[in-house]
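> Could you send the Gallinacin-12 prediction when you get a chance?

Sure thing. Input:
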Amino acid sequence: MGILWFILIFVSLTGHGDTHGPDSCNHEGGLCRVGNCIPGEYLARYCFEPIILCCKSLSPATAKS
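Output:
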């Protein structure tokens, strides 16, 4: 019975609409984080929705000369 619950939870986490997994996030320059992105990062998408976020760094502002 415990294995059935584990499989159900795993399928539920991976089966959400905009989840791409950690490999896709890392490949595109992001990091998977639990909870919130740190200051200086933004939420790009989800690694495993809704708990694990794919955060990317904000680009540094370009200075005008």
